[in-house]
């Protein structure tokens, strides 16, 4: 009696509050709702006949609606088998997916859940492919960003200046700091020779005054941070050997 009253509607609880026998309560509820099957069955059969896989945007929506209808049919005494579920899904594929429907038939699924599992996996993979294509369409490979690379190296250099051996703290570091200062005060011309041995001294002085890269001639980065394509570098290096004013 406690179990029955726990699961019935609150309005029915007060209506059958005086009934103390659980068998009597069960019979009263059965008599009251016996006509429910005859009311639900026609609508459930109509929904089953109108159900089509192609009318849903996702597999999950179709699967949820299908089992809702199936549960109503089973409550009304109708028998729904696995073959009926499979055929219902196969026959309601979109006309443009006839070949795909035939491929799924060739798998010879015995359980409806196996077919739905395959459809869910295929749907998820298609969504991932579309997202990857939208994020970067075909033929739009990203090019290396020279400015970002140079700023990265520049940030590292600035970080070293704030470390040991710089500013007012250099007097407290002793001989070790003196060695580092000697390295920092090396001749710029000599360091440029180490970075690009094939460059002439005159070209180096010209490029240093302009603030351009000794490798490609572009502004905004150093030789070590240069990411310019090799064929552009070859053209630039070849132009330096000419004494034409239109370089």
UniProtKB/TrEMBL annotation:
Residues 132-214 are annotated as: Disordered. Residues 169-187, 197-211 have a biased composition (Polar residues). This is UBN2 domain-containing protein. Signal peptide: none annotated. PANTHER family: ZINC FINGER, CCHC-TYPE-RELATED. InterPro entries: Znf_CCHC_sf. One of its GO terms (molecular function) is zinc ion binding. It comes from the Eukaryota.
């Amino acid at each position: 009696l406690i179990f029955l009253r726990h699961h019935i509607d609150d309005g029915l609880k007060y209506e059958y509050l005086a009934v103390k026998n659980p068998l009597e309560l069960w019979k009263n509820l059965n008599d009251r709702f016996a006509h429910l099957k005859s009311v639900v069955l026609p609508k459930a059969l109509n929904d089953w006949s109108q159900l089509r896989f192609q009318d849903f945007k996702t597999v999950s929506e179709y699967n949820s609606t299908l089992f809702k209808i199936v549960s109503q049919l089973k409550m009304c005494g109708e028998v729904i088998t696995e073959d009926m579920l499979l055929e219902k899904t196969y026959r309601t594929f979109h006309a443009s997916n006839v070949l795909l429907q035939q491929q799924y038939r060739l798998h010879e699924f015995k359980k409806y859940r196996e077919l739905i599992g395959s459809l869910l996996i295929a749907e998820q993979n298609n969504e991932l492919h579309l997202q990857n294509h939208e994020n970067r369409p075909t033929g739009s490979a990203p090019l290396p960003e020279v400015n970002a690379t140079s700023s990265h190296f520049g940030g590292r250099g600035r970080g070293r200046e704030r470390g040991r051996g710089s500013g007012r703290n250099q007097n407290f570091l002793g001989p070790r700091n003196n060695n580092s200062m000697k390295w920092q005060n090396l001749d710029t011309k000599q360091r440029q020779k180490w970075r690009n041995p094939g460059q002439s001294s005159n070209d180096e002085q010209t490029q240093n005054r302009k603030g351009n890269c000794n490798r490609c001639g572009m502004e905004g980065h150093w030789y070590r941070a240069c990411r310019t394509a090799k064929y552009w570098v070859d053209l630039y290096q070849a132009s330096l050997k000419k004494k034409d004013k239109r370089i």
